[in-house]
Design a protein that fits this description.
This protein is an alpha+beta fold and 125 residues long. The chain has one domain: TolA/TonB C-terminal domain. The chain is built from four helices and seven strands; from the N terminus they run αβααββαββββ. The protein has a three-stranded antiparallel beta sheet, with helices on one face. The longest helix is centred in the first third of the chain and has 19 residues.
């Protein structure tokens, strides 16, 4: 009887620790069963990106990492540049993620949930 109780207790402790790591202190999921998806895929980003002409003239290129939350409605909130390249490219990456690109929401246990994401946006001449 004691062995069964010990095993059951350890199992419950392990599963609760696994589920608690999926969400941050604000209730935003770090990983969901079905992660948010860009409508139209990464190709949509390539179509909508507007390379700043000054950055082209100066030969500036690189990868801007943008962190954000996709909420239950598929809208991007709390977007910020995590790894900048140049102000012009950073500004374009934020504009692209917040205004032009649309997402389907993430799902956990069949319900739409807010999910934290990081998207690398490559600027290449």
């Amino acid at each position: 009887m004691n062995k069964k109780f010990l095993i059951l207790s350890l199992l419950l402790l392990f599963t609760s620790a696994v589920y608690s790591q999926q969400m941050d202190e604000n209730g935003v999921y770090l990983q969901a069963e079905k992660m948010p998806v860009i409508k139209g895929g990464m190709r949509e980003i390539g179509r909508k990106i507007q390379y700043p002409s000054i950055a082209k003239e100066m030969g500036i290129q690189g990868v801007v990492y943008v962190g954000f939350v996709v909420n239950e409605n598929g809208q991007v909130v709390d977007a910020k540049v995590l790894r900048p390249v140049a102000k012009l490219l950073d500004k374009e990456a934020l504009r692209l993620v917040t205004k032009d690109v649309k997402f389907t929401p993430g799902y956990h246990e069949g319900k739409p949930v807010p999910v934290k994401m990081v998207l690398p946006i490559r600027f290449r001449l």
